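Hi there, hope your week has been kind to you so far. Thanks so much in advance, here it is:
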Amino acid sequence: MKPLLLHGHHTGPNPYKVQLVCENLNLPYDLKLWVLGDGEKGVKSADLLKINENGRVPVLEDPNTGVTSWESQAVINYLLRVYDKSHTLGPGPDASEQERIDYDKWTAFLTTTVGPMMGQRNWFVNYHAVDNPDARKRYEEQCLRCFDVLEGQLAKSNGKSILPSRFSAVDCHFWPWLRQYEFAQLNVSKYPLFQKWFKEIGARPEIQKIDERIAKEKEAQGITALLAP
């Protein structure tokens, strides 16, 4: 098959999710990195807006089918439908309705709650120009509430995977966001199962491969900043 073209960002968790799925499915892909803003290499540039009207990454172009997808959940769902024929990362044809719902609800919990709360916490801790203790406190509380929920779920697998049956695309959705807990200045010491899960996923060979790939492409593509000039 021809390589997929993944448009991403060198620090963004959402493109990283897609890379995790591609690596686990052994799908060849090229990686084009973008930065924030509307400069030549920015996500708001005319070139990216042609393929994603929302001006965000990830965007996935598949030359094998002619399909372009964006929004990480939609991209991953596409990859599972089209390329995960053995259902290694998602529910298979014999999955019960409860298993399908469990997959959907935990994915939705990440995309609608965990990710946005982590994003807001990161913003007010690291980027907001004016100190806002109330916002930092609110999003710390909301992030830790999410960790409470996740810790309870991880108890079902003794910290091995979010869905108790096996490693799945749900783990691919969560790990890139939750790896930012230190950057977000969150204390996770009371979550031993999260720490076990985080360490075990982080030790998977595809994580090192992705990190090395991003660093290599960042240098090769001349990406030196978060924001386009």
The beta strands are 4-8, 29-33, 59-62, 67-70. The chain has eight helices and four strands.
